Amino acid sequence: MEKWYQLDTEQTEKKLHVTVQKGLSSNQAKQRQKQFGPNHLKSSDKQSRWLIFLKQFQDFMVLVLLAATLIAGMLGEYVDAITIMFIVLVNGFIGYFQEQKAEKSLEKLKELAAPTATVLRDGTWEKLPSSELVPGDIVRVKTGDRIPADIRVVSSKGMETEESALTGESLPVMKHATAMKKPDLEAQDQTNMAFKGTLVTRGWGTGIVVATGMNTVMGQIASLMSNTKKIPTPLERKLAELGKILIIIALFLTGLVIAVGVYHGHPLYEMFLAGVSLAVAAIPEGLPAIVTVALSLGVQRMIRKKAVVRKLSAVETLGCASVICSDKTGTMTQNQMTVKEIYHQGAQIEVSGEGYQIDGNFYINDKQIDDNFADLNKMLLYGVLCNNAALKVKKGQYIVDGDPTDGALIIAARKFGLKPEMERNYRIIKEIPFDSERKRMSVVVEDENKQRFVITKGAPDILMPRLTYILEKNGRGVLKERDRQAIEAAVERMAEKALRTIAIAIKPLKQTDTLEAHMIEKDLQFVGVYGMIDPPRKEVKAAIQECRQAGIKTVMITGDHVKTARAIAEKLELLPKEGLVLDGQQLSAMSVEELRNEIENVYVFARVTPQHKLKIVQAFQERGHVVAMTGDGINDAPAIKASDIGISMGITGTDVTKEASSLVLMDDNFATIKAAIQEGRNIYENIRKFIRYLLSSNVGEILVMLFAMLLSLPLPLVPVQILWVNLVTDGLPAMALGLDKPEEDVMRRKPRSPKEGVFARGLAYKILSRGLLIGVVTLVAFMVTYHHDPDSLTYARTVAFSTLVMAQLIHVFDCRSEISIFNRNPFENVYLLLAVLTSVLMLFVVIYWPPLQPIFHTTFLAAKDWMLILALSALPTVLFGYTKK
């Protein structure tokens, strides 16, 4: 079955039962509206806000905490119950507000659709809401309009559409009406089609609507987004894993303590209360909140580095990324077409400067030339006159209003010193616009002396057959075969550098000459060739190298041609000698398994579609990679959503892409990703630090209670003391650990495996060994004081409580390094010092302030008590603080 772009106008009219002259009748339109539905993108059914909020509490760990809250309340431990409930609610609200913002992508896609369209109905042109369009409608679009549906172009007057957000093309696409018989063309190659949501940047045209709503190319992308499953991040998986482990431990210990206590003759009520206390101790209620706070603090630091995080857990995920799939245009390049070489009068002229700034010079054989080079001045003037772009200044920066290629010619002229006043001496008599059939543009110009001439620009291979003369230093000469060969060699040389080439030619005219294109665009005089490219960002090469040192592979994914993509990749030193480049056709021909087997050797993907990008991301994920996908266009959104972390551009990125992403680069700079990776890695290490600190502290609390039960001793700690330790002594220092600066070698380490558990790299041993010692020294402090004064259980509990707190506060400095407590400067983290001092001060308050003593079951301690407490509490760090294990 032939596709729309393969049919000519008459075949399209016949298939859709319409004529271009009259359009659909009102009755036809109503029938098709019922058949095809409204012309808008569908979104998934929205969940109620209450349901979204309640979903935050379906986690098993949260349910256990809620059960503990109920039990504590029933047993009269209202402080415990209120505190636990408060933490659960805070985390629930955080999750709710994050989820509210997470699925707005389809809404933003809708906003790109044109609100109205000019439609031919019953032979009359009228404006209608674009949602009322149906297949078969005849529509008319002009510069500045958004295409309201997918249309088969039936007439075009220099019409160009900006499709970079949809297809990845970095240049506007010229549209024509001629049928294209080649089968299986991708969207970016269907130049007789215009697609819903794209923008008309030049000219005007008419077309027949062939697809509406979800049947359009944009609708297919929307379907990809809505059908793509979001993969849980490594941090989410690890915290879920940790929660399950802690729940099992808590339930086991609760049952064990109750059983042992009852066996030793303790009352069931007292043992049940002790069991609940141990459950509270085993599950660090503050862990989710502290993780959220640590991620939030990391987010603040990343904002200062021009990276805005939309999803907190994405910070850590970026830190373990092993592949970055990056869009080329606007991400690795500046998205500013720039003239880099000029071939003129047999000379190869190099042009310095990047992007849309007018700073730069012209060189022949490394020797600078100036604006006295009269013939080059003329060539640059011709490029400005045969031009539809304009140079504007916005916020102190030059921007191009119009086609980037035209803009590059204006910038080159300004660099050479050509003033805008010079152009005012010339008047445009007639313009013959560029189109895909002619592949050239011409203007008839009259100078101040009433002398007329035509300027023609276009692809060199299009202009060559029309050349008869050449501009030489001594004037006009006949174009000889050696001249043609020299021009072709210059064009080939530029093409090898992936420079886009535009040739310029002129022809003097008489006042009486006819101005028809077929007459004036022959016997032309060759002037020169421009070679231009969208230049790479300066910082990107260094960023790619640093990512490589960190064990992260950078892959370029672009809609541009293979030659251009390869040249940019080589300039950025992204493509190694043995690296492969694949294009869209090769990707389509490969099975998923073939791509998965080959993808480790591929560094550049060119001429790709949204489906290809999704396929690439999924292939890397199947190889076990954590994939970061960057991009700025609608075409990137499905792959961004499917990746482990999606990164969008803040300046050039579409709203759709930003909403689908987890991270937004406010400066559109690939180098910012490197800074984000470093921050992400550091945040994960900091999370490991406070998990180590919290769990070793909780192990100490559990063991002191369990050992006391086994030894038939009274409970060394009451539930409110355990909760106080969990929320105050554990919480403040743990948050301060989240502010630790990265260690020096953080960007020289290989990415973590996504399968790595939270307790990898010896963390479980460190937690258990330090926790065991903390529990032992706390129990020893309790036994010594209780044996000394058996009638004062409150006194013994106060000493045990203080020993536990001080042991944890000393141990927190050991948690700052994987190697040794002496490996980091203790004064480097001022926030940690303040947190420890605050915890000590609060300990003194609950011990020495009489109103709090009955609540926390404490009493006054003497100096000799503190000597015992400090000696015992320092012991775990003294014994283990200098070892790697």
From TrEMBL:
It is a multi-pass membrane protein. CDD domains: P-type_ATPase_Ca_prok (cd02089). The chain crosses the membrane at residues 245-265, 271-297, 690-710, 722-742, 763-786, 792-810, 830-849, 861-882. Residues 23-36 have a biased composition (Polar residues). PROSITE patterns: ATPASE_E1_E2. Keywords: ATP-binding, Calcium, Calcium transport, Cell membrane, Ion transport, Magnesium, Membrane, Nucleotide-binding, Phosphoprotein, Translocase, Transmembrane, Transmembrane helix, Transport. Residues 23-42 are annotated as: Disordered. Residues 3-77 form the Cation-transporting P-type ATPase N-terminal domain. Belongs to the cation transport ATPase (P-type) (TC 3.A.3) family. Type IIA subfamily. This is P-type Ca(2+) transporter. It comes from Tigheibacillus jepli. The lineage of its organism: Bacteria, Bacillati, Bacillota, Bacilli, Bacillales.
